User: What shape does this take?
Amino acid sequence: MSSILFRSIKGRSDQYTKALSSLLGDIKSPFKSGAMVGIKLHWGERGNHSFLPPVYAKEIAGWLTMQGAKPFVFDTTALYSGGRRTGSDALKTAEEHGYTADYLGCPVVIADGMDGRNVVEIPADFKYFQTVQVAAVTENTDGFVIFSHFKGHMAAVFGGAIKNISMGFASRAQKQRMHSDARPSIKREKCTQCGVCIEVCPVGAAKSGDDGYPVYDLATCIGCAQCIGLCPEMALKILWNTDDKVFQEKLIETAAAVWKRIKEKSIVINALLNITAECDCLPGENPTMFHDLGFVGGYNPVAVDAESLKLIGTEPFEKAHPNIPWQRQFEYAKETGFYLDD
Assistant: This one.
């Protein structure tokens, strides 16, 4: 099912929630009374000024509650340093940005756990990934609202529902796998010899050396990035060197694997508001590149992102991020069966 709904915004910004409410009123809800439903969103990096305000999440949570569902808002920890690297930092950032249980009327959850280890492996069976590692919420929640701020992105050109599912559900290790074919490289000045990298290595490639620092058998290493993602001191280098085309394909593979597990119990909404050139992961002021349009809703993330791009046009995104093969996301989505035209 790939039917698309669009509600344009009219009047002052304080009327925007009426457009969202109208869309919610017409969307076909898959949620049963008593269902635990996660609202997947991004409350912005600490210091970012372009994230979506929490009023829209509150509207969605209220809509779910009226149906008898039990909503909660969630995101996962970030791979890089900043205000979302750990669960405690992420919750503090959420609070600073107004995403609190008192305001939203529902809990705020870090889906991969406070230490980033509440994760599961799910089947993928694609070119790069046979499995993908994602937050355990993927498997133990009754339904999802994928609520995304549609805007630009330095590596994907645009960020919407596809990226909110792929990077947004992914564990820190899976995030690293998408960004690079990862092998550990230690920064000794940051290492405290805590042993976490040795503990989490699934193949025994990490061992304690004679001087107490970890050593890595790269012939045994499978590049899973568990050590990089879970090092509490960020003493293992984060790599960002995946080829642009490969990155688009890895995004699709991760999102497709997640979507296969949740598609029968999910809806997708993009907010085409405050459309900035960069994603909400960056602190500071991000320039807007297009005027506010409204909300796009549907039942497939690829279709909802395609419609969002159609409404805005591709020129602003390509001007902000030239020479990146963003079209490969849609091509590969069809090749993998993630999205098929009706």
